[in-house]
Amino acid sequence: MIPTDTEWRDLISAIHMSDRKVGIAITGGGSGAIGELLRVPGGSRLLLEAQIPYDTQALAGFLGFAPVQASSADTAIAMARSARARAARLVPVGTDLVGLGATAALVSDRPRKGEHRFHMAYSNAAGVGHCTALLAKGKRDRGGEEDLVSRAIVLWLARACGVEAPSPRSLLGADEHYAETMIATGDAIDQILAGGIDRVTVQPDGQMMLAAPRKPMLLPGSFNPMHAGHALLARIAEEIRQEPLAFEISVTNVDKPPLVGEAVRQRLAQFFWKSPVELTRAPTFLEKISLFPRTTFVIGADTAERLVAVKYYGDDEMRMHAALAEIGAFGGNFLVAVRIDAAGRMRRLHDIAVPSRYADLFTEIPEQRFRLDTSSSQIRAHARG
């Protein structure tokens, strides 16, 4: 139900009186929310600053990086965090701060190929909340969509400030899509360990994102520890394919106990300011390819050998063929490095009996480009010795 004018003013007054200090950043649409908040007396108790980084360069300057897509959940979350960080410089330590970010793609003077949508996020002491809506094209003109997004921002800000208010969903029609997610502070790792989410991307600065753009290549591993061989393999793979790479760690394993939070955080810390890491619940490549279609997985020859070994499929050859066929159907493939296996044997791709129908899924990295003789287990054994 849409609030009456009196209910709307009372709601905004309650937000003003919430004892929060707020920084807001809006791009793409919905800037009328600032006027809505300031039209009701008392806005100075709430609002520290409001930014409208509308131009692409202005948005990049506000965030400190150029987002892959301006109108996305990740951009809204980054805007909310940046707004809260800016606000923290303006008030004493201990102030109850809220950062709110909103980004929209609305009716334009040019035909829009994509969906009309908005993404909003808040960042407060409890964590991050974000919501996304897909609007029905042609249902409203630009002014109508602006008014809707402006009101949705106010309702989402009420939620961030602990004020009871309708959901932004109440502003939409039955034919329009809406979803929201809450993430408690520091809880993304706990959520993935608990099975609440299947994937989180950890950026080099430590920021965790739930829907980050996928890199075209992944280097999976346990990285216990990460060593120079991993870093070199990643660099060589990027040079060969001329594409960027991320590392991947699964918190679950086919034949080992799941990782615990402390172990996950320790392993992630090795990548800070070096490389992004995909943290997943995907121990097998069949599960990985469902999360990362059209991906090149960078692996050692020992791993490639297990991929085509029937014993790893319960001695069921049909299961092995079905798994490889599905990986291929999802656009997956493997870049294979020479490895020394546990028995000290040199293993190359041509030593492995890859079924001919799947041979095009595998490409060898020439030994002269890369050879890895050291493993993480050997490093751990040496450290214990």
Key terms for this structure?
Maf protein; 34% helix; alpha/beta; 16 strands; six-stranded mixed beta sheet; 12 helices
Largest sheet: 10 strands, mixed
- The low-pLDDT segments are none
Strand content: 15-25%
Question: Count of DSSP helices?
Answer: 12
Give the total of domains. Answer: 2
CATH architecture of the largest domain: 3-Layer(aba) Sandwich
Return the CATH class of the largest domain: Alpha Beta
- H/E series, N to C? HEHEHHEEEHEHEEEHEHEHEHHEEEEH
Q: Provide mean pLDDT, rounded.
A: 90
Radius of gyration: 25 Å
What is the third-level CATH name, the topology of the largest domain?
Answer: Rossmann fold
How far apart, in Å, are the first and last alpha carbons? 69 Å
**Number of strand segments:** 16
- How would you describe the shape? elongated
Helix and strand content put the structural class at alpha/beta
Share of helix, binned = 25-40%
Summarize the structure.
The protein is an alpha/beta fold and 385 residues long.
Q: How does this structure look, described?
A:
The chain has 2 domains: 180 residues, CinA-like (Maf protein), CATH 3.90.950.20; 197 residues, Rossmann fold. It is 34% helix and 23% strand. The chain is built from 12 helices and 16 strands. The strands form 2 sheets. Strands 7, 8, 9, 10, 11, 12, 13, 14, 15 and 16 form a 10-stranded mixed beta sheet that branches. A 6-stranded mixed beta sheet has the order 2-1-3-4-5-6. α2 packs across α5 and α9 packs parallel to α11. The protein is elongated. The mean pLDDT is 90.
